[in-house]
Amino acid sequence: MSETLASVKSLAMRGEVEVSRHGLRELATRGIVLDDIVDGINAAIVVEDYPDVWKGPSVLVLQRDGEGRPVHIVWGIPRNAESPAVLVTAYRPDPERWSADFMRRKT
User: Fold this and answer.
1) CA-atom Rg of the chain in angstroms
2) CA angle 20, 18, 14 (to 5 degrees)
3) Which of 20, 31, 73, 104 could form a disulfide linkage to 99, CB 3.0–4.6 angstroms apart?
């Protein structure tokens, strides 16, 4: 498992979660319920890991919403900080751009 995802899971379990402005807009625009995402963090699967991003480590994960539909979430942790877990963005993966399991980008 990604160290970033392990940290995000731990922070979420303690309620140390924030949503970026962009993330909030994306959740609202796409009809994704934040509680579904936070409650489902333990089932998150790493799609891409970005441990060395200049803003702080982040990770793209595949999660499911309350209706079982796939959702990609980018979680991050601010640089030089241990908290909070930040929901950076959220979207429903496009089957035209992703593999059938939504784990790999199509070329």
Assistant:
1) 13
2) 160
3) 104
